Amino acid sequence: TLMLKNDGRPPWYTADGKNLPVYMVGIAGGSASGKTSVAKRIVESLDVPWVVIISMDSFYRRLAPEESKQAFANNHDLDHPSSFDYVSVLRVLDDLKHGRSTSVPQYDFATHAPRDKSQNIYGASVVIFEGIFALYDPEILKMMDVKIFVDTDSDICLARRIKRDVADRGRDPLGVLDQYDRFVKPAYDSFVRPTMNNADVIIPRGLDNQVAINLMIQHIKRQLDGSNATIMRPILVDQYSAADQ
Ligand code: ADP
Ligand code: C5P
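# cytidine-5'-monophosphate complex -> structure
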């Protein structure tokens, strides 16, 4: 998933070419726990020009032909930490952290493969990085200004996942259940859930927890306000002076 909130201003920059601080939010949690939904809610509530959601799903490694065959039979593990290309994740996050444009791969769940086209992003003042292993890699953790873990009951996640994977990801319900037993549940217990320890904030029930989400939004807004002098003003001053001429 990738979403840009763009109020029509050009990508931000400074007159003196300085890198601007970028605020980074990591959101981890089990599959279908509500990570994307929480990320979107935060985006909707932030009144800053450029907010981008980067989904870890974009960084699934390309499968070898035999692995792909197994994936179609719900018999390939796509929930192990090694399923993701962390070098690419770090390249994208590092680009955005330093105010550079970047290119994000796109993934097709129906074919278990990356799409041919990637998506260009021209910069962001807030980056939300969400995925089952968003709080797993130490280098990624270092980049995050705030780390959130969405903790939703696994039966609720499974019910949502069945509906979503059938409606959006080209799956059949029994296949989803097989994959859940074999890979999703064991990997959650062994690898995903322990990353809760890396979180600053745990949000029980995901999107249903309005109070926790509002607190998080207030926190992020306060952090952004605190850095307004250095982040937002140079952009606006620069744009106004360009328009005045
Ligand atoms: P994740 O990003 O963790 O996989 P999503 O936010 O994409 O989870 O949610 C998975 C599915 O569950 C989606 O179809 C979404 O619309 C639905 N969903 C998420 N949160 C809720 C909620 N609080 N109530 C009802 N449906 C929800
Ligand atoms: O969006 P969500 O966090 O649910 O995405 C992660 C899940 O996607 C993993 O649990 C994995 O099993 C599933 N997946 C899949 N098929 C792929 C790639 C990932 O079912 N080709």
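# post-check
Confidence is low (pLDDT under 50) at residues 6-15, 228-245.
The pocket of cytidine-5'-monophosphate (ligand 2) is lined by residues 31-32, 57, 60, 71, 78-79, 109, 112, 132, 184 (CB under 6 Å).
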